[in-house]
Amino acid sequence: MGRGEASNRKLVGREEWEKRLTDVKIKKEDMNTIIMNFLVTEGYVEAADTFCKESGTQPGVDLNAITDRMEIRKAVQSGNVDFAVERVNDLSPEILEEKQELYFHLQQQRLIELIRLGKTEEALEFAQDILAPQGEENPEFLEELERTVALLAFEDTKNSPLADLMDIAQRQKTASELNAAILSTQCQEKEPQLLNFLRMVIWAQQQLGEKVDFPRINDLTSAALADNAN
């Protein structure tokens, strides 16, 4: 945006903008619903139970089901993929039967954990017997399979070109994919409504900023207003 365009924007100072924000009324019930949705989706069972008792906001789901889901998620995050798969099959066996990509990623993670433990022979056997057939049936999995098996070529996997596969973030990615699948089968949203609202805030500020110079919220964590752009 050029200087001429910027100068044509309406200027709204901090005091006026804060007043406008204060004048926006949000029902407490709506806020409570968003909070409960976040607690349920992210699996904070005890917090959801306490919030239900204190605010009267119902979770809308069986909290025991959340406990099962989080147990599965934590298992993947700690590298115990076998236990996670077993618990998923106990909870909703159709999940892994219908979602081939998710099943592949879980088995890929299992291979990564074998490599992490230095069980080279077992990892090779697992790749040949379990993952290779999946790659033959689903060519879209081949690249990921080849990258994972290639880890076996490095003695120091954490400092190899494929180190990202050994990172904890890889476990988190697989755990999140599985968590989203379980939520979907339980007819729940895959992510908290709060995230959508935050995206809307960012989008709305971008749109409004084309016409108005106003104090923006740049840090969504603190929600503090920044100074005007000009």
UniProtKB/TrEMBL annotation:
Pfam families assigned: CTLH, LisH
Lineage top rank: taxon: Eukaryota
InterPro entries: CRA_dom, CTLH/CRA, CTLH_C, LisH, Ubq-SigPath_Reg
Occurrences of domain CTLH (ranges): 65-122
Name the UniProt record assigns to this protein: CTLH domain-containing protein
